[in-house]
Amino acid sequence: MIDRYRPLFHFTAPSGWLNDPNGLVYVEGEYHLFYQHVPPSLEEDFGRSFAHHWGHGVSTDLVHWTHLPVALYPDHLGAIFSGSIIVDWHDTSGFFGGGPGLVAIFTHHNADAAPLGPEVQSLAYSTDGGRAWTAYAHNPVIANPGVADFRDPKVWTCSRAGSVFGKIFLRTTCAFQHRCAPIKVGRLCYIQLA
């Protein structure tokens, strides 16, 4: 059934607020779209910035979407802000017992002072194609170096280099980059570029 108040070819959340796309990956015949989401029951908390979750949808053709339950929920480290997801095909993270899985790196946003806030970078992983997520027990993996707007990690893989690359944006300029080849949890590093 067509809903005349929704776009025909653009993804929309089933309800509530939707913002930044945070991981479009293809694995096992499905495209996964993760996005910032504030469920309707929490929209009154939106101004306090601690209601952000990650919504999740899947598609086989990028036109027809199935909505899945919320993927990432706020926790003791804060709300879930922007980030990205990679398919860890060769289990370089060590989360998947030698098989493939999904790894999310994202910004936790909270009201704390550095190094635990207001924005730190964290990991979560999924062993079942993105249906269920486990927060990494040693989050945050990158503490805040004492700056504002330390957020929105963008991570990608390069199969030719056998590496995982990433950037974290500081205000409007790229401030930090880390490269570990291959990335190993517990060995995340970053260097200041600017």
Record the SSE blueprint.
Blueprint: E1 17-27, E2 30-38, E3 53-59, E4 65-72, E5 79-88, E6 101-109, E7 119-126, E8 134-135, E9 150-158, E10 163-170, E11 173-180, E12 191-192
Antiparallel strand pairs: 1-2, 2-3, 3-4, 5-6, 6-7, 7-8, 9-10, 10-11, 11-12
Defining key terms:
mainly beta; Tachylectin-2, Chain A; four-stranded antiparallel beta sheet; disordered C terminus
Give an overview in words:
- By secondary structure, the chain is mainly β.
- It has a single domain, classed as Tachylectin-2, Chain A (5 Propeller), CATH 2.115.10.
- Helix content is 0%, strand content 47%.
- The protein has no helices and twelve strands.
- It has strands spanning 17-27, 30-38, 53-59, 65-72, 79-88, 101-109, 119-126, 134-135, 150-158, 163-170, 173-180, 191-192.
- The strands form three sheets. It has a four-stranded antiparallel sheet, with no helix packed on it. A four-stranded antiparallel sheet has the order 5-6-7-8, with no helix packed on it.
- A hairpin with a 5-residue loop joins strand 3 and strand 4.
- The protein is globular and about 50 Å long.
- The N and C termini lie far apart (52 Å).
- The relative contact order is 0.13.
